[in-house]
Every structure is written in structure tokens, then in C-alpha cells.
Amino acid sequence: MADGSAALTTIKTTCAYCGVGCGVAGAVGEGRSVSIAGDAVHPANLGRLCSKGSALGATVSLEGRLLEPTIGGKTASWAEATALVAKRFKDTIARHGRDSVAFYVSGQLLTEDYYVANKLMKGFIGSGNIDTNSRLCMASAVAAHKQAFGADLVPGCYEDLDVADLVVFSGHNAAWTHPVLFRRLEAARARGQKHVVIDPRRTDTAEGADLHLAIAPQSDVRLWNGLLADLVRRGAIHRDYIAEHVNNFDQVLAALAENDQSLSAVAADCGVAIEDLRTFYDLFAANARTVSLFSMGANQSAQGVAKGLSIINAHLATGRIGKPGACPFSITGQPNAMGGRETGGMANTLAGHMDFAPADRDRVARFWGAPDTARAPGLKAVEMFEAVRDGRIKAIWVMATNPAVSLPDSGAIREALAKCPFVVVSDCVETDTTAFADVKLPALGWGEKDGTVTNSERRISRQRALFPAPGNARADWRIMADVATAMGFGGFGWANNASVFREWARLTAYENDDRQLNLSGLSALTPETYSELLPIQWPVKADGKGTPRLFVDGRFQTPDGRARMVPVKPKGPAEATGDAYPMSLNTGRIRDHWHTMTRTGLAPDLCRHAPEPYVEIHPDDADALGLKDGALARVTTSRAEAVAVAKVSDRQRRGSLFMPMHWTDAFAPSGRANALVAPNVDPTSGQPEFKHTPARVRAYRETWKGFFLSRDAVMSPGLDLVWRRVPQDACQQHEFAGRGEQGQRDALRKILTKKLEGEVVAYEDAATGARREAWIKDGRLIAVFYMTATGRLPPRDWLAELFGEQTLTAEARSALLFGRPPGAPVDKGPMVCACLKVGAKAVDAAIAAGADTPDSVGAVTGAGTNCGSCRPEIARMIKVLAVTPKEPAHVV
User: Is the pTM of this model over 0.85?
Assistant: First the structure.
């Protein structure tokens, strides 16, 4: 789908990030240059993009790309690599059985890729051992949907967010994780929509809400059960709807009666004020058009399924489902988490929302012509890598994901991969995981991929290639199909991706009398109509029309057509805090980064809002520990230790810590949060409990610190110190700190500077341990090295900007070792607006001058006028300054 001149071609595609599934218009120029804009007619975003989507054009370089197959670190041909992978998997299966091999795949794959992976592993290898990183995001919601509705069916659509009168965010920081949807909700709020946020942290979403319930960790089920009990007391349930469409209501009532459901008891157990609890229950009872958005905060728990079911129970009991503005709505985390769920990417499902019941299994086997189709579920993500570690799985293929960083207890994952006899990784970039690969297979990245994805509202959209394949990179589905053929399997000879999609669509319609997932209307697409496919929501019937909202008629995908309420009981966390680890560690995402930074780490603008790993802690806890804001802190759990910058904030609940999960060996090896996380999982869904791990924290107490700016990135020097890298526009900023003596400092300097050339300008003060050096070649700044044992370090901004100069001015040269330009230093403060590079100082100044809304701040500074992702933060800054006493002006 393209338009424009020969010099500039605009191609419609879909964003690579979250489950909103935003449409993108890429205006492609020469080489790999592209200008990114939102697709104004795509129904998911109507032209809006968040900071990450807006910066996609900065992430399409070939930096760090895998471009050739390698075997044992040496370049190989595709024929050699394909033959080796096929042989090793065949030999392993012959010696140790089908379940000795596994695939670990990703929501970054396209639906066509997912389908081929599932067909190969479950259909022809005959094992259930294929699981996806969506297990870490949405598996609990999937299990809850299946128990309540009979299948993994998301009932709502984005239009429901527009027309709802009440939106409840349950463990969902939409302002950061789904900013485009949050902008949509901001517009609805302007007409009177109410927002309630259930989250232990006062996030940007919570900051602007009508009500924030800062519940105690893992008390969600208690809260929602209390709501249902309160609705029953009020007579606010929909008894006619229950009688006609819902089973098990009486069993749920009996389970509720086992606990004291009074407001005072629920409030005490959840750690919230009784007045706030009453306000939430009043709002829910009063607003029939209620959408409950639930995401990682609910799902990533050893009670994730129970949390999802408790939310669904409240909606079924009130008939708030299948109606405009009324539904429980699971919001997915990745661009194609939904497509993976549809095609059987999870170990406990088959393609087309079929399971391992004999009838389903035989149906899929008939369609594929694969009599060896797996008869039982395989191992879920955490247990899969446990099986790799203990030797049950002897060959694993990891596709488009980075489990050495993203899985809990990631140190154990690395140990497992190091022990595994044969590891294959197909990816577009080098990652922490590719370091363990015996064979690396270069896959296409965003901007080169061509296929389909499904977003959170069941909308199928096309991802289209903006650029030709670089090097010898290939489509994931093609890589897998070639390996399948080399293994001797038939049925993998598709001519193109359209052929794969047609087969997948036919499977959804095959012997389908009652399954909602049905793409029969898309099963005859030609390559041309596939290429031009417009966004459409499934089910897609034979007439080609989509379906925005499910369960409109009150019919569900259960044997009797009735939904099932499920009794759920509140439980404590899988591991309790105690004397050794007295605090609760919660991990999650930040606004401008994505997963393990393989894409967003290439865009300097996305690295400024939160440039390095941090641990957020309440001021009372910080004071008790002697921990200062901005100081380095050690965070320790029973699994590992990490070092991050302390962020002291009353937005964090007392006794709790928060760390972002994004940083890797390439950016901050000592700041990897998921190494700390205990691998406790929900017993039904297998989803890990990322939101609670007992931890302790203390000051790092470095004896020296410094920074190194250079034109090229430097990997961690391998010394026992804290190391962080922050990409800048024209250089790479490396921060470091250590506890060693002079020998450690000398070793670091030698490693960093041994290859530098040019004129050296230097300053050293042995008394303070200060050292400042700059390298200049042909008039350009090459590198800067600053270190101190006792003193302060200057800001980095001005020095980083000098790397963009073709020739240093005499004035700049003379000021280099001061680290700031002559005259008063310009401090922009922390970055607020990544798009327009507006710092906190400019926003504060605008507010002080009278700007009292995000729009008025934007009019003065530009902040928030592009993608709008920073608008919630600007609103919070306005609110904070409004209650901060103004210091009297001083006359000089």
C-alpha cells in the first residue's frame, strides 16, 4: 500500500511496540531513511503515535544487526546453517524423544511466523514444547478468559473506551505503557468520564485519576471480591442477565461468604482508606457503562488468573459485557501477542483457539496431514528453561526474544543456555541471548517484515516492508519452513507470506461450528488483496465483515453457551517478606523504552527521560536506610544483586521498591532487574510474579566515580564496578563507579583509552583523585574522560553536544576540562518531552509564569505537542507546583 513520488514513497504499516496496534505511515527516502507519522485513517490510533512510535525512524539503522548466518561464531551460508539446525534437531529427537527439543518464540513475530513455528513443533515434530514471551505478559488473562468465556476471547473494542462513563485501570499504567489509548481516554475524561486506578504505585495514570487506590501488593482479589459482595448488598447486580447467561453465581456467593466482606475488613486487608474504598464501590455501582482495563499489574502474579477472574466476575454479575462502553478488557503488551495466542504460540494451546482435547487435536492433525500432532501441552516458559537447565531439553531454538534478560531469575536462564548442547537463535540483532547461540540466524526486523499482527481489540493489521532485506536476513516463517523441509517434513513449501496467511485463515474456519476465532472471510485472499488488506476485527465471516464487540447476544463459547463465574479466594504472595528481605520489589516498564532496548536503545531521544537503571523508594524507607536521592543503591534478593540509581519518591508505597526491567549487558550489566525476580508462577497460567519479590536495599557507597564520552560504544570493561551506557546524539555516554583503590581506576582508564589517538588535554589532582582528559583529532572532539574520588562531576549535556561540532572553537577547547561553557551554566533538568527535547526546567518556568494546563505549557515550550506521551507528567508537574509554597522573591 504505497503512494507518493519516485523519490519519496509512503507505505502504510503497523507499529512494532505495544498491543494498541497503531497504524504508521512511513515516508521512505534514499537508503534506509524514513520519516514516520501516524496513519490518520487507521482505527486503532487515528494518526496518533507515542514517543516510541514517533521515533521508529531512528531505530532502523543496521547498527548491531545480524546480517549473515553464523555457526560457532563463523560466517556460514544459509544452506549450511539450515542443514545443521535440521540435523541436530532430528538427531536429538531420535536419541532423546520429541520432548527433548523446544522453541521459545515472541510477540515480535508476525502471525505468519507464529503459525509456521506452531505447525512445525506441535504438528510435525509432535511436541507441545513451544512457548512464547507472551507467557510473561498475558497468560493469566488467557486462562481467565478460557475459564469464564470458554475460549481466549477479548470482548471489547477501543470504541468502548470512548463511550464508557467509568474506566477502572487495574494494574495498568496506560499513560506509559499504552499512551495512545491514554490520549483517547483523556478526551473521554474531558466530557465527564471517571477514572479509577488500582495500583500500589502512584503512576502517571494514577496521578490524574479521580481516585487512586494504592492497594497493598497482591490484594487485588480481596478488593474485587469485596466489590462483588458490595454490589450484592446494594442489589446492584443484574439478576435477569445472570439467570439467562451466567453459571455458578451461587457458588461464587458461597465463596464470598467465607470471608468478612465488610467495607472495613476489605479496606484493612487492602491497605486503603475506607472512604476511598466506598468511593470506588459507589462509582462502580452507579455507572453501567464501565470498562475495567487490566494488564501486567494484574497478570504478572502468582494469583494472576484469580485476579482476572475476580474482575470478570464483577462484570458478569452486573451484565456489563457485550455492550457499548461495558466490558472487562485485557490490554496486551506486544504488537502481536494476540496473534501468537490465536495461532497456538502458547505451550498449552493448539492453533485456532483449540486445545489438546482429542476432538481438537484430531481436527488440527487432519487439517495439517500430521498424524504425529502433539497429544499434550508442552512446557511453559519458566519450566521450559528449567528443563533446559536440568538436561531434559537438549536443543532449543529462541526466536525474536531475549530470555537472558527478560525472564525471571535470568541468571539461571543464562546458566541453562550455557549448559544446553545446542542453542539456535534467530533474531535481527545481537542480544544477551545470542551470546549463548551455537547457530545464529539473521531475521528481518521491523521495517523489513511483511505480514499481519493482531492488536488488543482483535484487529488484524498489515505490517509492510519499508526496506529490502539487508544482507542475508530472511523472514522468520521462511527460515522455519526451510528447516522443516530439511528435516523431511512436507507441507511447508509456501510460495509467499500470503500463502501462509491463507492456510492459517482456512484452519480457523475448518470444521468450525462454534469457535469465535474464524477468518473464513479472509481465507481466499490473493497475494494482491493480501497486500492491500485493511485493518479488520475478527471474527471475519464469509462476507468479509469484521466484528467489533463479542457476546452481544449473551452467548459464550462454552458447551451450553453460558458464561461461567468462578469462585476465587485471596491469597498471600508466593514468597513473603521477612527480616532478610523486608521489602517488596516490583518490576515493570518505563515510558520511552521497550522490553530489552534492542530497538529503543538506538534512539537517543528515547534514552533521556530515564537514562539509566533506577530503583524507586519511598522517602521514609530511604531515610531509614540512609539512602539519598540520586545515589547508587544495591538491591538484593535471594536470586541476585543489582545496582541502580535511587529515586526517592512518595509515589512509591512504603515498604515497596520499583525497578524498570529494560537494561541489558550492552547498557547496564549491573542494573538488570529481572535477575532479581524469583521464578514464582501462577499455578494455572504459568505466568511469573514480576510484581513481588522479597528484597532489601542499601547504599552502594562508591569510593570513586566518573564518565567517559566517546564516539563509539564501549562494552562493559569486565571490572568489578558499576557501568552504564547512555546513547547521545553524537556520542556514547558511559557512567561508572567503583569501590576499589587506585589500581582499579588505572585499569579502567587503560582499557578505555588504549586505542584513542590525537592531541590530549589533561588535568590531574592527586589530592582529590580527580582526572580530566580530552582527545582532539583534526579539530574534532574524539573522547572525554572524567574521574573523581571526592569531588563533583560536571553536567554531561554541553560536553555531549560538542561531539556534534565539526571543529571545536577556541572557547570550547579552553573550557573542555571545566566541563561547562564559559558563563552561567545552562541546566535543562531531567528530560520531560523526548520528541522536542524539552527539559523539566523549561516546563517549571512555564508553569511558574502562569501556564496551568498541559496545553498552555505546550504553547510556551512545545512539550506535549507532538506525540503527547509526556502530557500526564506535565499535568503532574502542574499539580505539584500548585501545592508547593512559593519562596519570596529576593531583590539583589
Answer: yes
